[in-house]
Amino acid sequence: MNQKAVLILLGLALATIFALVCVLLTRERTPRSCQHLPPEQEDVEDGQSLVFADLTPEEMSQVVRYLQAQLGVPLVDASRAKPSENCIASVDVQVPGKAEVLRFLDDGGARPPREALAVLYFGNQAEPNITEYVVGPLPTPAYHRDVTVQKYGGKLPYHRRPVTGKEYVDINALIQRELKKAPRFLAACCESDGTNLVILTTAPRGFKSGDRVTWFVLFHNVAGTGYYLSPVGLEVLVDHGDLHVSRWNLRQVFYNGRYFAGTGDLEQEFVAGALEVVRLKQPQAEGVLGSLKPRRPRGSPGPLQLEPQGHRYSVRNNRVTFQGWSIAFGMNPNTGPRLFDIRYRGERIVYELSLQEALALYGSNCPGGMSTRYLDGSFGIGRFAYELVRGLDCPYTATYVDRHYLVETDTPKTNQNSLCIFEHDSALPLRRHFSDSQSFYYGGLRKTTLVIRTISTLINYDYIWDFMFHDSGAVEVRVHATGYISSSFFHGRGTDHGNRVGPHTLGTMHLHHIHYKVDLDVDGQLNSLETQDMEYEFIKDPWSRQNTIERPYLRRERLEKEDEAAFPLNVPMPRYLSFVSPNPNKWEHPRSYRLQVISFAGKHLPTRSSMERSVSWGRYQLAVTRRKEEEPSSTSIYNQNDPWTPTVAFADFINNETITNQDLVAWITVGFLHVPHAEDIPNTVTVGNGVGFFLRPYNYFNEDPSVDSSDSVYFSSEQDVRACGANPLACLSSAATCAPHLPPFHFGGFLNL
Predict the structure, then answer these.
(1) More confident site: 566 or 723
(2) How high is the pLDDT of residue 686?
(3) 173, 602 in Cβ contact below 8 A?
(4) Is residue 15 in some structural domain?
(5) Which of 318, 394, 581, 744 could form a disulfide with 591, with the two C-beta atoms 3.0–4.6 Å apart?
(6) What's the rounded Cα separation, in Å, for the pair 213 and 204?
(7) For residue 5, what pLDDT band results from cuts at 50, 70 and 90?
(8) Range 449-462 average pLDDT
(9) pLDDT at 671 > cutoff 60
(10) End position of a domain, from candidates 223, 257, 272
């Protein structure tokens, strides 16, 4: 072999070796870039947030066993208890007082004892009543104390208790017995013997304190579809106030615009030919109004959010941390999601952020619809937050958390995967600028947000509750409504109260009003309330005195009293309204957080209404009051069934106390009027049906805190924008090779129904 051939072969060998080394180095780098990095750890001590934690199933069971052993009265499991018996209605955590918690969190004080709040229905007593006990210390209870009088100023009347599942079962049995008295009418109107009809409750239940008389609306039931869209025109009024179920009775019947004393009278009118009957066919599954089954073949998969190196947030126990944020989260079985001790960069911004109530108030020309004012807290906003569907309700790779509750049973229940936490890329810059003059550069930051979400299904409606935390130090709270509309049978002048959305279906107008509690602690507990808005002043032009100029100026005002800080619903509010600290930032402005409300609320119930005080929080889009331990919530689960003598009336919180340099609470109402229309079939969509509010830093920092984000992007015309070191966006192509390993799809949400 000649020398030239040897050199050629040697060169080829070296080239091959070099290529293999490159491949190996590339393969070496790829796994390293795809390795999951541990989320950054925050400075909050592990375990501190447990002072706010929901009860564990074991703790709930311990409370039940303690009460059964110590109360000295017979207790029946609430799932089968009659009104004339005693039962444990619910057990939830008793969050300690704020002063005690802050001594523990901030001053090294003792950890507050862990306690539970137990609600009991005593039907088997000389004076039936509702009693609330604080039980502790957990996990091994040794004491209980009756806090009913302390909390409510007196005993709680028994008729205020929420309706239990067992009570609904007994009501349905009564209605079914009554329907058998009108067999020919049912066959003619509904192709039914009554067994394929389902009932939907209304509320409140009567017209005065002590009433427990409820209209129930009847619908055709078709498996796999929403029966809420198939009313048959029949509604019944049931009196279920007596302690003895055998004494319950049907008070009235409504059909197609007419009222009857009972189903027997209805049958007589029909047989006599004196009744106008709308003959409905039993709906078939394939053609029923409101089916959610897909109508088209499956297409290609949609976009999937990618986390190349795993979650950038951390969830430990009941606390989540993310890029400077720290939040303790939980779920009240009645009022739903609640957050505590919200900190940014180690500083507490919010002590408590919690949902209080959701009101749905309807109009109709049928009795059930026109009398409905649902207060969803009494049904269970948290209790009915079921398992979330991975990849649709939340991103597929989100973190899913179980929630536990004990309501209407002696055994704790678990809603698996019913709360989700995820980082969301909104596909929108949080900030950006492209410079096209003097020097040429680009700087920006993607808007990625930590989201805590849960979804409650409250009969027909589904509420999506979101709490979002931004790199700018802002907190965003948002609720979307979806699910099925509630409907009435279309007759007469039904369109005075909504739109016709089916052959015999009236989509009834209604409003959704949602109430939140926000206990802000801006740079400490002592805050004041400041408003800012714009005005114009006409002045002589300083450089041309014969002319005038309209100059905007800023009008600042400190609000001194609670009455000044109660802003009526649908009345313009100052555009800037802030909780301000006595301490200034670097530029000598008070460190503040601004409240910005986004709402399209309907009209509040007239104050002359006999039940208005029970929802008097709805008078105000915002009310700021001094914080008091004896005013923990703006409403009560007992308001639904006795709105005429409300257990808690929020209007009483506002009594013109001083709000300067005090521990303050913001009570915020958001909502919208909904007039159902054809496009609400089968379900109301979330587009345009979202409301909420922001808590935004306003001179709290010395500059936008997001400038410290490691996600920031900056490059100039003098740099190679394709270089990964100069521009992190150039690294994305290699990061995209790190496709996530998706766990198999699983859903167990039907197990606890």
Answers:
(1) 566
(2) 95
(3) no
(4) no
(5) 581
(6) 8
(7) low
(8) 97
(9) yes
(10) 272
The vertex-374 CA angle with 602 and 367, nearest 5°, equals: 90
Give domain status of residue 268, yes or no: yes
* Same domain for 415 and 351: yes
Q: What is the DSSP string of 678-709?
A: GGGSS-B-STT-EEEEEEEEESSSSS-GGGG-
CA 9 to chain centroid, in Å, comes to: 72
**pLDDT number for residue 338:** 98
When pLDDT is cut at 50, 70 and 90, the band that residue 669 belongs to is very high
Question: Among 376, 462, 466, 523, which one carries the catalytic annotation?
Answer: 376
* pLDDT for residue 224: 86
- The angle subtended at Cα 480 by Cα 230 and Cα 577, nearest 5°, is 140
The interaxial angle of helices 263-271 and 183-190, nearest 10 deg, is 70
**Tokens 């699983």 found at:** 746
Residues 65 and 85 both lie in one domain: yes
Same domain, 718 and 666: no
Whether 461 is a known active-site residue: answer yes
Instruction: Kindly report the length of the chain.
Output: 753
Neighbouring-strand partners of residue 339:
329, 353
CATH number of residue 201's parent domain: 3.10.450.40
- 257/489 Cα distance (integer angstroms): 9
- Residue 244 shares a structural domain with residue 155: no
- What secondary structure does DSSP assign to 508-574, as a single string? E-EEEEEEEEEEE-TTSS-BEEEEEEEEEEEEEETTEEEEEEEEEEEEEEEE-BGGGGEEETTS---
Q: Among candidates 619, 617, 623, 622, which has minimal Cα distance to 603? A: 619
Choose among 319, 404, 349, 370: nearest CA to 492: 370
What's the rounded mean pLDDT across residues 144-148?
Answer: 98
Query: Nearest Cα to 292, choosing from 675, 603, 682, 608?
Result: 682
Please check whether residues 220 and 332 belong to one and the same domain.
no
Domains of the chain: total: 4
CA distance readout (Å), 732 to 33, 253, 263, 424, 739: 11, 67, 70, 17, 12
Rounded CA-CA distance 458/462 in Å is 6
Same domain, 601 and 625: yes
CA 471 – CA 467 distance, rounded (Å): 14
376 an active-site residue?
Answer: yes
Tokens of 119: 């609600």
| Rg of the chain in Å (alpha carbons) | 31
Q: Between 5 and 133, whose confidence is greater? A: 133
Domain that holds residue 123: 48-160
Could you tell me what percentage of the chain is helix, strand and coil, using 3-state DSSP and rounding each to the nearest 5?
20, 40, 40
Residue that finishes a domain, picked among 272, 304, 326: 272
Q: For the chain, how many helices (H) and strands (E)?
A: 9, 34
Backbone angles phi, psi at 50, to 5 degrees: -65, -15
Q: Smallest Cα–Cα separation from 400: which of 325, 323, 438, 452?
A: 452
CA–CA dist 651, 15 (Å, integer): 84
- pLDDT higher than threshold 50 for residue 512: yes
Specify the pLDDT at position 4. Answer: 58
Separation of alpha carbons 723 and 629, rounded Å: 58
What are the b/e assignments for 305-320, b being 16+ CB within 10 Å?
A: eebbeebbbbbeebbb
- Confidence check: pLDDT of 26 > 80: no
pLDDT tens sequence across 594-647: 999 999 999 999 999 999 999 999 999 999 999 999 999 999 999 999 999 999
The residue from 255, 313, 362, 461 that is catalytic is 461
Bridge partner list, 170: none
Same domain, 565 and 461: yes
Supply the DSSP string of 63-80, one letter for each residue. HHHHHHHHS-S----TTT
Q: 12 lies in a domain? A: no
Peptide bond into 137 cis (omega under 30): yes
Residue 156's φ and ψ, nearest 5 degrees, are -95, 120
